[in-house]
Structures are given as C-alpha cells and as structure tokens.
Amino acid sequence: AQSVTQPDIHITVSEGASLELRCNYSYGATPYLFWYVQSPGQGLQLLLKYFSGDTLVQGIKGFEAEFKRSQSSFNLRKPSVHWSDAAEYFCAVGGSGNTPLVFGKGTRLSVIA
Amino acid sequence: GAVVSQHPSWVICKSGTSVKIECRSLDFQATTMFWYRQFPKQSLMLMATSNEGSKATYEQGVEKDKFLINHASLTLSTLTVTSAHPEDSSFYICSAEAGGWDNEQFFGPGTRLTVL
Questions:
Q1: On chain B, which terminus has fewer CB atoms closer than 10 Å, C or N?
Q2: Phi, psi (5° rounding) for residue B78?
Q3: Which tens digit of pLDDT belongs to each residue from B61-71?
Q4: What are the chain A neighbours of B97 within 8 Å (beta carbons)?
C-alpha cells in the first residue's frame, strides 16, 4: 500500500536555527517525491521534488531534501529558518504521469524569536 | 510556472443547496485533474481523478452522486456538491497535471465551503 508518514505533527524552532522535517514513504514502484508548503487558508506551494538522479535536491526558499532509498526517507532540511517559514509542510509520493499523490498528515512548523 | 485557479475562493450556502466549484488551468492544458478535500488541521485526501472527456474515477468512500465532477475541456474541471450538508464543509483543492512524465501537479488555491 502506498503511504507517507510524517512522524512529527508539530515542530518549534528558533529563528536562525536549522530545521529537518522527516518523511518516510511506502510505494510499490519508483517513487516520485514532493514537499509542499501550505500557509493557513491557502493552497499548496511546491518546495521541491525528486524523480531521479542526484539524491540531494535543492528547492525554493533555501530548502533541500535528500532521498535515501535504503531508509525510504525524503527528509526536508533548511540550514537557517526564517519566521516566514512558519506553515504546514506536506510530504507526498506519487508515480509516473496521471497518478494522484498520496500525502502525509503534515508537520506544522512554528518559528520563535 | 503553470497556474491553476479555483472559483470561488470561499462560499457559504444553506443546507440542501448545491454548490459548483471551478478549477481552471490558466496557461496549460491539463489532461488530468484531481480533486482533494482537506479538513481543518488535516492532510489532503484524494476524492477523485478526472480525465478530460471521460468519467471521473472516485476514491472509495466518496459518493459520486453527491460530488459530481465534470471535466469538459482540457482547461476546466468542475466539482458540484449536491444537496450540501454541514458535514460537507471543508477546504476543497484541485490540482492539474499537464501530462508530462514527471507527474508534477499544480495546485489551485483552494475553495473554502461552509454549509449552514
């Protein structure tokens, strides 16, 4: 069965500190992996995606994620968090074209001064 | 980048009425569109997959007679919530895929439905 697990429901970090959001997936075929960010009452914005090739992918807003096949993980990282990064983050997995995405339950990020 | 719009962005309706939500791909043709539902503080749950010119494929547990999906053109899909009830209140989000190999979906901004 296809599934995505984001073990952390809520994370609080200080502004300027580093961040890592965890994501584990279960997928029967070659996974296409995504991280999205959602601000309250808004739609989803794609941060980055992994299809193949280099397992460390760079995204927008200074985010990066590393695909580790052996661990079925695709953790999101940022070296220095800004207050504007406070939002809900969703990890998702899908297959090749025309297949829907399966989302994790999300991790809410709070940033404190 | 590709843009997907939704209309309306929010709607309040009385119980028993029907509401139509539009999802448009503004600068590309979408062979496939997806409709998701998101309850407060929860994740997105896929409701149905819509391919242009064919019937939508609904996920298990989603009532196809209640949530009518039409994908009449390559740039427009509509979701009609028929005889809406308060439990249908939710955030509805569509996404559109251009049909490339990479499965990138472009998400609309969502529609907040409140049924009184």
A1: N
A2: -125, 145
A3: 999 999 999 98
A4: 97-98
